Amino acid sequence: MNSPRAIARAGPLLLAFVLATHLLVAGPARAAVQHRFAVIAGNDRGGADTRPLRYAADDARKVHAVLTQLGGVAADDVVLLLNQASGELWRALGNAESRIAAARQRGERTLFVLYFSGHAKDGELRLGDSRIGLDDLKTRLAAGPADIRIGVFDSCRAGALNRTKGARRAPAFAIEAAGSEEARGLVMLTSASADEDAQESDEIGGSYFSHYLVSGLRGDADRSRDRRVTLSEAYAYAYARTVADTAESAAGAQHPTFSYDLKGNADLVLTDFANRSEGIYVPGDAPAGIYYIVDGSGFIAAEIQKSAGGDRLLALPAGRYHVRRRLADRLRIGEIHIVSGQLALLDEAHLRDAPFADDPVKGALRDEEGLQVSLGLGGTVQSFFDGPTRDGLFPPTGMLGLELELRDFFRRGWLLGFDFASGGTRGEVDRYGTLLPFRFTELSAGTTLAAEWRFRDSKFAASLGLRLAVVLMGRKFDNPTIPDQFFATFTPGLVAGARYRLARHFNLLGHGRVHYLLYNVDENRSLGYWELSAGVAYEF
Question: Where are the alpha helices (DSSP H) in 328-462?
């Protein structure tokens, strides 16, 4: 078939029929080994007129992991770009094309995968403040040197590409592509049609489409039960699950699209785990239903859609996972441990019933970032720069505090914070050669307005802003003849912060502050002090 045909909003059965005609084996043919290459990119930022994504970079990592572990792509033949500008993507494409051309000169058959997760708007992919035209990218892919080129785009309105149009290494292995050696062409998958938004999920910890694509490639899309997942199986699975899970969302159902322009016949096997000895095995006598495999961060790592009487194999890296199956009135939950190099048996008898309140996954659709509220608890150390002040008047003090942060309160990328801290220490002051010990106490309350930026891998964020605080300090001398002393003032300052996402709802926070303080009790003195704080915050 020489002319492109697009299948948008098509059902999985129609897709399987078309692919069976054009992509699967049509008759006896000689097997040929494919040399596979990939460029995987994820970018959470789309520029000033877009809202940053949460999981685009994480989606890219998951696709990178499944292709290198199960997809026959060697570590040296794949490039992973996280939050990089368009120039880096073009450069990676150029390098991949050079390597592919060299492989073809050696007589090798080649396959190239380009995956992008991020923003798309007004006919362009948005990579931070840089842009790539969708038509330019499709033209580049169509003219690429690889025998088979597959483009996967998880972006809002990426279906426009099909109209014209935020890892653990494992040894790679050869995958046979049975069929005509003349097979050549372009395949394009997009997560949404030309007028739809691609949606993310806090429960999944990623976009719906990429999650189901990866889950399918790990084995859940293997409807033929030959322990190989073909392109038709992967897309049909991702299509059906994405539509079903977004049908009731605020943004409405999301419909992935597919287009192809292929000559010849080829069995496009994307992942092969026939000899895989590491993952989860569900025997045929296990109850039918959907088993959710939850990782240590509380995100759904993969799913198993178990049919009655059929066994399932899901290829996953070694580690401890929670298992969850939802019944009509309760959950069935448990834990499963995948040992390196071994298959773990998912035994229903080892699961226990629990109320819905014990669900290890409690996320929900995040169709809009909106206001984010977090409450943190931590400790603060404060010290004045001036030596005499630090030694006698206001000694270095440790405090325990609470911090409330409202992100995107005014607009995207801005943070409004409120903090309260209290603490005390012992000190002494020299008066006429006599050391007078005292108890020093302090209470502070501040408000911060800061701009926040996320780091490359999207789990880190940094902020810089202004803070205004009120401090109340007191000295109570051990000698009862000396009256207690109190001092209160407003103090302006600068604050720099850092945030690291530990898990779905928990962040590790750190702040550094520098403040100016005017002391005017017995004399006017311009003083400065610094604070360092660290804590853990829960994000609602």
Answer: 387-388
Of the CA atoms within 13 Å of residue 258, those in its CB half-sphere come to 22
* pLDDT (tens digit per residue) in 430-441: 877 788 899 999
Question: Domain 370-539 class?
Answer: mainly beta
Cβ–Cβ contacts within 10 Å for residue 143, how many?
A: 10
Q: How far is CA 524 from CA 40, 383, 442, 488, 519, in A?
A: 61, 19, 21, 14, 6
Which of 380, 469, 462 minimizes the C-alpha distance to 418?
469
CA atoms within 13 A of residue 490's CA, in its CB half-sphere: 4
Query: Residue 475 has which token pair?
Result: 């000295």
Return the pLDDT at 253: 76
Class of domain 33-272: alpha beta
Letter for the amino acid at 414?
Answer: W
Do residues 535 and 509 make contact, with C-beta atoms less than 8 angstroms apart?
A: yes
Q: What are phi and psi of 261, to 5 degrees?
A: -150, 85
pTM: 0.62
Tokens standing for 473? 């300090």
- Quick one: pLDDT at residue 251? 67
Whole-number pLDDT of residue 345: 92
Residues of the chain scoring pLDDT < 50:
1-31, 159-181, 361-369, 456-457
Question: Among positive and negative, which fits the CA dihedral 529, 532, 537, 540?
Answer: positive
Burial class (CB in 10 A: 0-12, 13-18, 19+), 447: middle
- Residue 48: the pLDDT is 75
Q: Which of 205, 132, 191, 109 lies closest to 158 in space, CA to CA?
A: 191
Q: How far is residue 94's CA from residue 106's CA, in Å, rounded to a whole number?
A: 19
Supply the pLDDT for residue 355.
80
Tokens, residue 223: 């409807």
Domain locations in the chain as residue ranges = 33-272, 279-365, 370-539
Q: Is the distance from CB of 536 to CB of 377 less than 8 angstroms? A: yes
Assigned token pair, 165:
């149009």
Let me know if the fold of 33-272 is the same as that of 370-539. no
pLDDT at res. 193: 72
Long-range contact pairs involving 18-23 (C-beta distance under 8 Å, separation at least 24):
18/260, 19/230, 19/231, 19/232, 19/235, 19/260, 20/232, 22/260, 22/262, 22/265, 23/230, 23/231, 23/232, 23/260, 23/262, 23/265, 23/266, 23/267, 23/268
Give 75's DSSP letter: G
- CATH class assigned to 279-365: mainly beta
